[in-house]
Amino acid sequence: MSTGISDKNLTDLSRGFNKEVFSIYLRALEPGDAEVTYRWRNDETYRTGVTSTTRFVSMDTEKRWVDQAIRDHENLKHLRFVMVLKRSEEIIGMIQVMDIDLVNRNASFGIMIGTDRHRGIGYVIEAGYLLFEYCFTELNLERLSARVLEHNRSSRRMLEKFGLVQEGLLLNAVYKGGKYQNMVLYSLLRDRFMAQYEVDKQRMAKENR
Amino acid sequence: MSTEHTSTRKPDPQEFRIYVRPLEPEDAMVTYKWRNDEGYLSGVDSMKRFVSSETEKRWMEQAVRDHEELREIRFGIVLRETGDLIGIVHLSDIDWINGHATSGSLIGEARHRGKGYVTEARHLLLRYAFLELGLQCISTRILETNTASIRSIERFGYLKEGVMRRRIYKEGAYRDLIIYSMLREEFLEKHLPETEKEQP
């Protein structure tokens, strides 16, 4: 998965982060979420933005995938979270850490927003921040990477704003929409995130006092 | 009443505001809600997890079986006044040969913390461990940053054995774990009235 957001109205990153005032929170996937994620799959923007193969999925399959995702999370194989809007408790997207390698302290991550009306508001930024916080301050990871379709400019801009570094170009890495497409590989190292995080923590303590 | 006694008066379980009982599968719905409490995990040495209700149910079923087979002893802490499950006390790593186990406790919601409920529950747990299970030593490991638990465990009468250095990574930093333990006779001396001490 990767993002499909447009970049209008993105959170101003220069102001730093105060997660107390975020619009969303993350929680583990529940079996009932399959009903919602099933609907997302019919969204055209969703299909073109993600890096995975376009699939047409039955409700039955979606349910099994969600059940499997819950088990994978339980066994710390892949951690999938849903993004929940605080004001309505509506789930609007998913974010996940995959291929966790605890020896080398590496993992990759992906983000997706389910429907167009929730794109471009900055929810992805908040979810990313919460995920990075968890990965670096609790899972003790050293490096997170993400792969994005080369043409997915909005996602790339988002990752770059976050301080992710472009490491390389994966040529003809996926076949999608009638042609081979390149993917861009990004990474975020612990030190880069923690520097920002420490500043945020101090300012947050002041603001929330 | 409070069991945070400074006099020689011994705590009397009859006067406790809580009682303990084994866990039931349905308790998963309550413990699942606790996980939304930010303070819930910052004090304990286990890792922060995001847990689906499905996972919580499976874990609860496992806990019930572990208790059944005496691999672990896990009690729910129930408030007498309301009948609400508010926390858990447990014995893990039970070593029957050497008569040792580790104890642990948690209170689910912030509003129930700092009221001495754990002290009461711990009394009941250790009474069971020493007088019924015949264990000799109960130890516990506490995060160096968890000053409330350190105060509580010291007041209860556990002795500090040592420090496990840089053992836990949590909230962006490595932390030490402090080991405390209590021996059978120390518990009897400090917590049981004379009439009960003679039990084998």
In short:
The complex is a heterodimer of chains A (209) and B (200). Chain A has 209 residues and is an alpha+beta fold.
Secondary-structure class of chain A = alpha+beta
3D shape of chain A: globular
CATH architecture classification of chain A: 3-Layer(aba) Sandwich
- Average pLDDT score of chain A: 87
By CATH's scheme, which homologous superfamily of chain A applies?
Answer: Gcn5-related N-acetyltransferase (GNAT)
Strand order of the largest sheet of chain A: 1-2-3-4-5-7-6
Count of alpha and pi helical runs of chain A? 6
Under CATH, the topology of chain A can be stated as Aminopeptidase
Question: End-to-end distance of chain B, in Å?
Answer: 29 Å
Shape of chain B: globular
- Provide the domain count of chain A: 1
Q: What percent of residues of chain B adopt helix (DSSP H or I)?
A: 25-40%
| Name of the level-1 CATH class of chain B | Alpha Beta
Topology overview:
The complex is a heterodimer of chains A (209) and B (200).
Chain A: E1 24-28, H1 34-40, H2 44-49, H3 59-74, E2 79-85, E3 91-101, E4 106-113, H4 123-137, E5 143-149, H5 153-161, E6 165-176, E7 179-189, H6 190-207
Parallel strand pairs in A: 4-5
Antiparallel strand pairs in A: 1-2, 2-3, 3-4, 5-7, 6-7
Chain B: E1 18-22, H1 28-34, H2 38-42, H3 53-68, E2 73-79, E3 85-95, E4 100-107, H4 117-132, E5 137-143, H5 147-156, E6 159-170, E7 173-183, H6 184-191, H7 194-197
Parallel strand pairs in B: 4-5
Antiparallel strand pairs in B: 1-2, 2-3, 3-4, 5-7, 6-7
Helix pairs in contact in B: 1-3, 4-6
Structure description:
The complex is a heterodimer of chains A (209) and B (200). With 209 residues, chain A is α+β, with helices and mostly antiparallel strands. Chain A is 34% helix and 29% strand. In chain A, strands 1-2-3-4-5-7-6 form a seven-stranded mixed beta sheet, with helices on both faces. The radius of gyration of chain A is 17 Å and the shape is globular. Chain B is α+β, with helices and mostly antiparallel strands. Chain B has seven helices and seven strands; from the N terminus they run E-H-H-H-E-E-E-H-E-H-E-E-H-H. In chain B, strand 6 and strand 7 form a beta hairpin. In chain B, helix 1 (28-34) packs across helix 3 (53-68) and helix 4 crosses helix 6 (184-191). Chain B starts with 17 loop residues before the first strand and ends with a helix. The chains are: A alpha+beta (209), B alpha+beta (200).
